[in-house]
């Protein structure tokens, strides 16, 4: 069974289509209109080892907020749908990623209770055409819509490009661990409640 989903969401501000295959090879085809954000999503997919296709038409004449946040919403929904009943998954994942002077931890639980805990000190400003305030907005939307508890903690770093790249890569690697199927579970949901 392929764990794959495609979600299309269209509003007055954005039109976003996302396809995710959790059992892919880390291939990414991303076009959001914000170069740095495209780069981060490609890193997220590559280190998560899932295939990702993202097509976004957003109101970039306003700014990047709707494009970035809404992409998090749609990607989160696609991840949730691809996971289905979450039968046999590892559920938990964590990863430390160093990027030169930066070091970031991501840890997550596919709990069904979507929330972000963000401890990243990145200065306000721009990285290329990406507003640094939007990284947190993306991960809030992703966690809420995927139904995951996500912690992202910066342990070191000065260069905002390195900090964010470490965060996206760490989140991808943690997700890869959490969605992995554990044959020892025999298809059971990894919860004493029997449901996530």
Mean pLDDT: 96
Low-confidence stretches: none
Strand content: 25-35%
CATH architecture: 2-Layer Sandwich
Helix segment count?
Answer: 4
Assign the CATH superfamily: Imidazole glycerol phosphate dehydratase, domain 1
Biggest sheet: strand arrangement: 1-2-4-3
The SSE string, one letter per element, is EEEHEHEEEEEHEH
Distance between the termini: 20 Å
- CATH topology description: Ribosomal Protein S5, domain 2
The CATH class label is: Alpha Beta
Radius of gyration (Å): 16 Å
How would you concisely characterize the structure shown here?
Belongs to the imidazoleglycerol-phosphate dehydratase family. The protein has helices at 35-48, 65-83, 134-146, 160-179; strands at residues 4-10, 14-21, 28-31, 51-58, 92-99, 102-109, 115-119, 126-127, 130-131, 149-156. By secondary structure, the chain is α+β, with helices and mostly antiparallel strands.
Describe the 3D structure.
Helices cover 34% and strands 31% of the residues. The two termini are 20 Å apart. It is globular. β3 (28-31), α1 (35-48) and β4 form a beta-alpha-beta unit. It has a single domain, classed as Imidazole glycerol phosphate dehydratase, domain 1 (Ribosomal Protein S5, domain 2, 2-Layer Sandwich), CATH 3.30.230. The strands form 3 sheets. Strands 1-2-4-3 form a 4-stranded mixed beta sheet, covered by helices on one side. It is α+β, with helices and mostly antiparallel strands and 196 residues long. Belongs to the imidazoleglycerol-phosphate dehydratase family. It catalyses: D-erythro-1-(imidazol-4-yl)glycerol 3-phosphate = 3-(imidazol-4-yl)-2-oxopropyl phosphate + H2O. Its EC number is 4.2.1.19.
């Amino acid at each position: 069974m392929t764990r794959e989903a495609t979600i299309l969401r269209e509003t007055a501000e954005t039109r976003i289509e996302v396809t995710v295959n959790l059992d892919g090879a880390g291939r990414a085809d991303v076009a959001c209109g914000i170069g740095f954000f495209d780069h981060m999503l490609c890193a997220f997919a590559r280190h998560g080892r899932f295939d990702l296709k993202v097509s976004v038409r957003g109101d970039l004449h306003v700014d990047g907020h709707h494009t970035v946040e809404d992409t998090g919403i749609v990607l989160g929904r696609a991840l949730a749908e691809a996971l289905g009943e979450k039968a046999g998954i590892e559920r938990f994942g964590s990863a430390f990623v160093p990027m030169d002077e930066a070091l970031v931890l991501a840890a997550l639980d596919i709990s069904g209770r979507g929330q972000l805990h963000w401890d990243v000190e990145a200065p306000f400003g721009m990285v290329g055409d990406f507003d640094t305030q939007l990284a947190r907005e993306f991960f809030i939307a992703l966690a809420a819509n995927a139904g995951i508890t996500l912690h992202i903690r910066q342990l070191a770093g000065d260069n905002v490009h390195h900090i964010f790249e470490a965060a996206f890569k760490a989140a991808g690697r943690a997700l890869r661990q959490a969605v992995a199927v554990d044959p020892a579970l025999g298809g059971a949901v990894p919860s004493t409640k029997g449901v996530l």
